[in-house]
Amino acid sequence: MTDAARESDPDGRHLDYIGIDMAKARFEWGVHGARSTQSVTNEPAGFVALLADLREHRVGLIVIEATGGLEHALASLLLDAGLPVAVVNPRAAREFARSMGHLAKTDAIDALALAHYAHTLAHKADQAGVQVAPAPAHLEALQAMVLRRRQLMDMRVAETNRRQGPMRVLRKSIDAVIKTLNEQIDALDKEIGTHLDQHFKELDKRFEHIKGIGPNTCAAIVAFMPELGQISNARAAKLAGLAPLNNDSGSSRGKRSIWGGRSIVRCALHMATLSAVRFNPVIRPFYQRLLTAGKPKKVAMTACSHKLLRILNAMARSGKPWNPDLHGVTA
């Protein structure tokens, strides 16, 4: 490893930056500035081997690429060991790798590219949101239940679509599956409601008083936006993927658009907004004002979702109940 690739902490000790490429059967890790990587099985024995190796390093940051949930167990173990961890979006990681000249793609190359990414992230001026914070067990449980409900809903939509297909002779089978899925969704809704009542009762009650915010929307927001009340409105919008992003170059001014962020939160807010623009005493006039000003419906809906998120963030921060007079002051 070259000296240029290493940094020092305030005590003069060298810091190393680790990249971990996850796969179903194995994972591979490398150190920024090194040329070789190590690979072990994606199971407890492999986790122990990684921890043993990391004891020989002063870790500045560990970057793991999000891989469909395969990274959760290892990230939790590393966090429990007191190590700094960042779980990054695969698209962002790949774009960074290409920008750094890592055009080929293998597990070893990806691990070293992620280690390079770890070095870069650790030196960002704004460290907000870089490192993962250990999630409480009750929050992880709620996230798992909300994700499972979403999976069941997707399966029900798929089966319902198949029912309209040409194979009408299979309707009996399809109806049986739909019935089972309905039962599973109903049971899960009860579990989610009980869990919210046990662990997030006050926040859940405040949010559900907002017209448009139902139990399922509330569960998704509580589960996947735990930062609400502790971050700025701008940061919340970015996390939810509701912040309009510039697309300018030189004298050219491109059209702003939203993308990225936590899709499950954005989708939940969109569904809530569909109801809020009809019945919410704050969101409805705001939506009508935007339409009167000539804004396209899609733009107006996104702005309403953004406003609804700001309201939720303010309520979580202040601990105050829903007050249409208070939240209707600003556009």
From TrEMBL:
Pfam families: DEDD_Tnp_IS110, Transposase_20. Residues 18-163 form the Transposase IS110-like N-terminal domain. InterPro entries: Transp_IS110-like_N (IPR002525), Transpos_IS110 (IPR047650), Transposase_20 (IPR003346). Keywords: Coiled coil. Residues 171-198 form a coiled coil. The keyword Coiled coil applies. Residues 205-288 form the Transposase IS116/IS110/IS902 C-terminal domain. PANTHER family: PUTATIVE TRANSPOSASE FOR IS117-RELATED, TRANSPOSASE FOR INSERTION SEQUENCE ELEMENT IS1111A. This is IS110 family transposase. It comes from Pseudaquabacterium terrae.
